[in-house]
Amino acid sequence: xxxxxxxHPCFLAHLTPVGHPERPDRLRALDSALEDEKFAALxxxxxxxxxxxxxxxxxxxxxxxxIRGASPSEGMVQLDPDTSMSPGSWEAAMRAxxxxxxxxxxxxxxxxxxxxxxxxxxxxxxxxxxxxxxxxFNNAAIAAxxxxxxxxAERVAIMDFDVHHGNxxxxxxxxxxxxxxASTHQIPLFPGTGEVGETGVGNIVNAPLxxxxxxxxxxxxxxxxxxxxxxxxxxxxxxxxxxxxxxVRDPLASINLxxxxxxxxxxxxxxxxxxxxxGRVVSLLEGGYDLIGLAxxxxxxxxxxxxx
Length: 308
Known about the structure:
Layout: E1 3-7, H1 25-33, E2 43-46, H2 52-55, H3 61-70, E3 77-78, E4 84-85, H4 89-108, E5 114-117, H5 139-151, E6 156-160, H6 167-173, E7 179-186, E8 204-209, H7 215-233, E9 237-242, H8 259-277, E10 281-285, H9 291-307
Protein backbone atom coordinates (compact mmCIF):
# COMPACT_ATOMS: atom_id res chain seq x y z
CA UNK A 1 0.00 0.00 0.00
CA UNK A 2 1.66 3.23 -1.18
CA UNK A 3 0.66 6.52 0.44
CA UNK A 4 1.47 9.82 -1.25
CA UNK A 5 2.42 12.73 1.02
CA UNK A 6 2.04 16.12 -0.67
CA UNK A 7 3.83 19.08 0.89
CA HIS A 8 5.77 22.24 0.00
CA PRO A 9 7.88 24.82 1.89
CA CYS A 10 5.67 27.63 0.56
CA PHE A 11 2.85 26.55 2.88
CA LEU A 12 4.95 28.03 5.71
CA ALA A 13 4.97 31.41 3.91
CA HIS A 14 1.22 31.89 4.30
CA LEU A 15 1.44 34.17 7.32
CA THR A 16 -1.37 35.07 9.70
CA PRO A 17 -1.57 37.70 12.45
CA VAL A 18 0.32 37.14 15.69
CA GLY A 19 -1.67 34.82 17.92
CA HIS A 20 -3.79 33.45 15.08
CA PRO A 21 -4.48 29.71 15.56
CA GLU A 22 -3.97 28.83 11.86
CA ARG A 23 -0.22 29.37 11.83
CA PRO A 24 2.85 27.92 10.09
CA ASP A 25 3.90 26.03 13.24
CA ARG A 26 1.05 23.61 12.56
CA LEU A 27 2.97 22.13 9.64
CA ARG A 28 6.29 22.26 11.46
CA ALA A 29 4.77 20.16 14.25
CA LEU A 30 3.46 17.62 11.74
CA ASP A 31 6.80 17.48 9.94
CA SER A 32 8.52 16.66 13.25
CA ALA A 33 6.07 13.83 13.93
CA LEU A 34 6.69 12.38 10.47
CA GLU A 35 10.42 12.05 11.15
CA ASP A 36 9.62 8.77 12.89
CA GLU A 37 11.08 5.74 11.09
CA LYS A 38 7.63 4.24 10.46
CA PHE A 39 6.97 7.04 7.95
CA ALA A 40 10.11 6.32 5.91
CA ALA A 41 8.06 4.65 3.18
CA LEU A 42 5.90 7.72 2.52
CA UNK A 43 6.10 8.82 -1.10
CA UNK A 44 6.85 12.49 -0.48
CA UNK A 45 6.30 14.94 -3.33
CA UNK A 46 6.17 18.72 -3.66
CA UNK A 47 2.81 20.24 -4.50
CA UNK A 48 2.66 21.74 -7.99
CA UNK A 49 1.00 25.08 -8.66
CA UNK A 50 -2.66 24.86 -9.56
CA UNK A 51 -4.29 26.99 -12.20
CA UNK A 52 -7.36 29.15 -12.64
CA UNK A 53 -9.30 26.41 -14.44
CA UNK A 54 -9.08 24.27 -11.30
CA UNK A 55 -10.49 27.07 -9.15
CA UNK A 56 -13.31 27.64 -11.63
CA UNK A 57 -14.48 24.08 -11.07
CA UNK A 58 -15.93 25.25 -7.73
CA UNK A 59 -15.83 29.07 -7.67
CA UNK A 60 -16.91 31.79 -10.15
CA UNK A 61 -14.36 33.90 -11.98
CA UNK A 62 -15.42 37.03 -10.09
CA UNK A 63 -14.43 35.32 -6.83
CA UNK A 64 -11.09 34.19 -8.23
CA UNK A 65 -10.38 37.74 -9.40
CA UNK A 66 -11.29 39.13 -5.99
CA ILE A 67 -8.88 36.84 -4.14
CA ARG A 68 -6.09 37.36 -6.67
CA GLY A 69 -6.59 41.12 -6.56
CA ALA A 70 -6.44 41.16 -2.76
CA SER A 71 -3.06 39.44 -2.62
CA PRO A 72 -0.59 41.93 -1.09
CA SER A 73 2.99 42.53 -2.17
CA GLU A 74 3.87 43.47 1.40
CA GLY A 75 2.24 43.49 4.80
CA MET A 76 -1.04 41.73 5.41
CA VAL A 77 -4.66 42.24 4.35
CA GLN A 78 -7.78 41.11 6.20
CA LEU A 79 -10.44 39.61 3.95
CA ASP A 80 -12.81 39.02 6.87
CA PRO A 81 -12.32 39.10 10.66
CA ASP A 82 -10.78 35.60 10.63
CA THR A 83 -9.10 35.34 7.22
CA SER A 84 -6.02 37.17 6.00
CA MET A 85 -3.50 37.13 3.16
CA SER A 86 0.23 37.80 3.28
CA PRO A 87 2.61 38.03 0.29
CA GLY A 88 3.07 34.24 0.42
CA SER A 89 -0.61 33.35 0.65
CA TRP A 90 -1.43 33.32 -3.06
CA GLU A 91 1.28 30.78 -3.92
CA ALA A 92 0.31 28.67 -0.91
CA ALA A 93 -3.35 28.66 -1.96
CA MET A 94 -2.49 27.80 -5.55
CA ARG A 95 -0.18 24.97 -4.51
CA ALA A 96 -2.81 23.66 -2.09
CA UNK A 97 -5.14 23.39 -5.08
CA UNK A 98 -2.46 21.96 -7.35
CA UNK A 99 -1.38 19.44 -4.73
CA UNK A 100 -4.94 18.33 -4.07
CA UNK A 101 -5.58 17.77 -7.78
CA UNK A 102 -2.26 15.98 -8.23
CA UNK A 103 -3.17 13.67 -5.35
CA UNK A 104 -6.46 12.90 -7.11
CA UNK A 105 -4.57 12.21 -10.34
CA UNK A 106 -2.13 9.80 -8.69
CA UNK A 107 -4.86 7.95 -6.79
CA UNK A 108 -7.35 7.76 -9.66
CA UNK A 109 -4.70 6.38 -12.06
CA UNK A 110 -3.50 3.78 -9.55
CA UNK A 111 0.00 5.20 -9.10
CA UNK A 112 -0.59 5.26 -5.34
CA UNK A 113 -3.24 3.73 -3.11
CA UNK A 114 -4.10 6.88 -1.20
CA UNK A 115 -2.77 10.35 -0.41
CA UNK A 116 -2.51 12.99 2.31
CA UNK A 117 -2.01 16.66 1.48
CA UNK A 118 -0.32 18.68 4.25
CA UNK A 119 -1.22 22.15 3.08
CA UNK A 120 -2.50 25.46 4.27
CA UNK A 121 -4.60 27.53 4.04
CA UNK A 122 -7.42 25.07 4.71
CA UNK A 123 -10.53 25.11 2.54
CA UNK A 124 -13.79 23.68 3.84
CA UNK A 125 -15.32 27.00 4.99
CA UNK A 126 -14.83 28.71 1.60
CA UNK A 127 -18.28 28.97 0.02
CA UNK A 128 -19.02 29.38 -3.68
CA UNK A 129 -18.20 33.10 -3.58
CA UNK A 130 -17.32 33.87 0.02
CA UNK A 131 -14.10 33.85 2.05
CA UNK A 132 -14.66 32.40 5.50
CA UNK A 133 -13.00 30.77 8.50
CA UNK A 134 -9.30 30.94 7.49
CA UNK A 135 -10.16 29.55 4.00
CA UNK A 136 -9.63 31.12 0.56
CA PHE A 137 -10.51 28.34 -1.91
CA ASN A 138 -12.34 25.09 -1.20
CA ASN A 139 -9.66 22.46 -1.77
CA ALA A 140 -11.96 19.46 -1.18
CA ALA A 141 -14.62 20.75 -3.57
CA ILE A 142 -12.05 21.46 -6.27
CA ALA A 143 -10.52 18.01 -5.81
CA ALA A 144 -13.94 16.36 -6.15
CA UNK A 145 -14.79 18.30 -9.30
CA UNK A 146 -11.35 17.51 -10.72
CA UNK A 147 -11.92 13.79 -10.15
CA UNK A 148 -15.16 14.06 -12.08
CA UNK A 149 -13.83 16.18 -14.94
CA UNK A 150 -10.38 14.64 -15.43
CA UNK A 151 -11.07 11.01 -14.49
CA UNK A 152 -14.76 10.44 -15.12
CA ALA A 153 -15.66 9.78 -11.49
CA GLU A 154 -19.45 9.63 -11.38
CA ARG A 155 -19.83 9.78 -7.60
CA VAL A 156 -17.42 11.38 -5.14
CA ALA A 157 -17.89 11.14 -1.36
CA ILE A 158 -16.44 13.76 1.00
CA MET A 159 -16.22 13.00 4.73
CA ASP A 160 -15.40 15.94 6.99
CA PHE A 161 -14.46 15.17 10.61
CA ASP A 162 -13.17 18.67 11.39
CA VAL A 163 -14.84 19.93 14.57
CA HIS A 164 -16.29 22.87 12.63
CA HIS A 165 -18.95 22.20 10.03
CA GLY A 166 -17.74 22.51 6.45
CA ASN A 167 -20.34 25.04 5.41
CA UNK A 168 -18.45 25.87 2.22
CA UNK A 169 -18.33 22.31 0.93
CA UNK A 170 -21.99 21.84 1.78
CA UNK A 171 -22.83 25.12 0.02
CA UNK A 172 -21.06 24.12 -3.18
CA UNK A 173 -22.69 20.68 -3.45
CA UNK A 174 -26.06 21.30 -1.81
CA UNK A 175 -27.97 20.71 -5.06
CA UNK A 176 -25.56 18.19 -6.62
CA UNK A 177 -26.49 14.53 -6.20
CA UNK A 178 -23.19 13.38 -7.75
CA UNK A 179 -21.24 14.46 -4.64
CA UNK A 180 -21.99 13.09 -1.17
CA UNK A 181 -20.98 15.27 1.79
CA ALA A 182 -21.01 14.09 5.41
CA SER A 183 -19.82 15.91 8.49
CA THR A 184 -19.36 15.31 12.19
CA HIS A 185 -18.93 18.60 14.06
CA GLN A 186 -19.76 20.41 17.27
CA ILE A 187 -23.02 22.36 17.59
CA PRO A 188 -23.28 25.10 18.73
CA LEU A 189 -20.02 26.37 17.25
CA PHE A 190 -18.72 28.36 14.29
CA PRO A 191 -19.97 28.61 11.55
CA GLY A 192 -23.48 27.88 12.86
CA THR A 193 -24.51 25.46 10.10
CA GLY A 194 -24.71 21.67 9.96
CA GLU A 195 -28.07 20.81 11.51
CA VAL A 196 -29.45 17.32 10.90
CA GLY A 197 -32.22 18.76 8.71
CA GLU A 198 -29.75 20.17 6.17
CA THR A 199 -29.86 17.34 3.64
CA GLY A 200 -29.46 18.95 0.20
CA VAL A 201 -30.99 16.68 -2.43
CA GLY A 202 -30.45 13.67 -0.20
CA ASN A 203 -26.67 13.90 -0.62
CA ILE A 204 -25.87 15.72 2.63
CA VAL A 205 -25.54 13.95 6.00
CA ASN A 206 -24.85 16.03 9.09
CA ALA A 207 -24.16 14.22 12.35
CA PRO A 208 -23.63 16.97 14.94
CA LEU A 209 -21.99 16.40 18.30
CA UNK A 210 -22.60 18.24 21.58
CA UNK A 211 -19.97 20.05 23.67
CA UNK A 212 -18.23 17.54 25.89
CA UNK A 213 -18.84 14.55 23.63
CA UNK A 214 -15.97 12.12 23.18
CA UNK A 215 -15.03 9.09 21.17
CA UNK A 216 -18.12 7.07 22.02
CA UNK A 217 -20.52 9.71 20.69
CA UNK A 218 -18.30 10.33 17.65
CA UNK A 219 -18.16 6.66 16.76
CA UNK A 220 -21.90 6.30 17.23
CA UNK A 221 -22.55 9.27 14.92
CA UNK A 222 -20.25 7.79 12.31
CA UNK A 223 -21.64 4.26 12.64
CA UNK A 224 -25.33 5.14 12.68
CA UNK A 225 -25.50 8.03 10.22
CA UNK A 226 -22.40 8.62 8.13
CA UNK A 227 -20.97 5.23 7.24
CA UNK A 228 -24.21 3.52 6.12
CA UNK A 229 -25.12 6.50 3.92
CA UNK A 230 -21.66 6.67 2.38
CA UNK A 231 -21.64 2.93 1.75
CA UNK A 232 -25.04 3.18 0.02
CA UNK A 233 -23.71 6.06 -2.12
CA UNK A 234 -21.07 3.67 -3.53
CA UNK A 235 -18.41 6.30 -4.34
CA UNK A 236 -15.75 6.18 -7.04
CA UNK A 237 -13.44 8.19 -4.75
CA UNK A 238 -13.43 9.06 -1.05
CA UNK A 239 -12.10 12.49 -0.06
CA UNK A 240 -11.47 13.27 3.61
CA UNK A 241 -11.55 16.82 4.95
CA UNK A 242 -9.17 15.90 7.73
CA UNK A 243 -9.43 18.43 10.52
CA UNK A 244 -8.01 17.39 13.89
CA UNK A 245 -9.54 20.11 16.07
CA UNK A 246 -12.03 17.70 17.67
CA UNK A 247 -9.02 16.47 19.68
CA VAL A 248 -9.36 16.83 23.44
CA ARG A 249 -6.39 19.26 23.55
CA ASP A 250 -7.71 21.66 20.92
CA PRO A 251 -8.43 25.22 22.19
CA LEU A 252 -11.18 26.13 19.68
CA ALA A 253 -13.80 23.52 20.57
CA SER A 254 -15.07 21.16 23.26
CA ILE A 255 -15.04 17.67 21.73
CA ASN A 256 -12.79 15.11 23.38
CA LEU A 257 -11.41 12.81 20.70
CA UNK A 258 -8.05 11.09 21.06
CA UNK A 259 -5.66 9.65 18.51
CA UNK A 260 -7.30 6.22 18.51
CA UNK A 261 -10.59 7.79 17.40
CA UNK A 262 -8.89 9.12 14.27
CA UNK A 263 -7.32 5.71 13.65
CA UNK A 264 -10.77 4.10 13.92
CA UNK A 265 -12.49 6.66 11.67
CA UNK A 266 -9.75 6.48 9.04
CA UNK A 267 -9.96 2.71 9.00
CA UNK A 268 -13.73 2.74 8.58
CA UNK A 269 -13.50 5.16 5.65
CA UNK A 270 -10.78 3.02 4.09
CA UNK A 271 -13.05 -0.03 4.44
CA UNK A 272 -15.74 1.74 2.42
CA UNK A 273 -13.20 2.79 -0.19
CA UNK A 274 -11.86 -0.77 -0.38
CA UNK A 275 -15.35 -2.13 -1.04
CA UNK A 276 -16.52 0.61 -3.42
CA UNK A 277 -13.55 2.01 -5.32
CA UNK A 278 -10.39 -0.08 -4.98
CA GLY A 279 -9.30 1.80 -1.87
CA ARG A 280 -9.05 5.24 -3.47
CA VAL A 281 -8.76 7.86 -0.71
CA VAL A 282 -7.46 11.44 -0.87
CA SER A 283 -7.15 13.21 2.50
CA LEU A 284 -6.73 16.99 2.81
CA LEU A 285 -5.62 18.83 5.94
CA GLU A 286 -8.18 21.20 7.40
CA GLY A 287 -8.11 22.36 11.04
CA GLY A 288 -6.27 21.34 14.21
CA TYR A 289 -4.80 24.08 16.37
CA ASP A 290 -3.12 22.47 19.37
CA LEU A 291 0.30 21.57 18.00
CA ILE A 292 0.69 18.37 20.00
CA GLY A 293 -2.87 17.21 19.35
CA LEU A 294 -2.58 18.00 15.66
CA ALA A 295 0.79 16.32 15.19
CA UNK A 296 -0.17 13.14 17.01
CA UNK A 297 -3.61 12.86 15.41
CA UNK A 298 -2.47 13.60 11.86
CA UNK A 299 0.45 11.20 12.26
CA UNK A 300 -1.97 8.49 13.41
CA UNK A 301 -4.22 9.25 10.43
CA UNK A 302 -1.30 9.02 7.98
CA UNK A 303 0.02 5.85 9.65
CA UNK A 304 -3.42 4.29 9.17
CA UNK A 305 -3.49 5.31 5.51
CA UNK A 306 -0.09 3.66 5.10
CA UNK A 307 -0.57 0.48 7.10
CA UNK A 308 -4.32 0.07 7.67
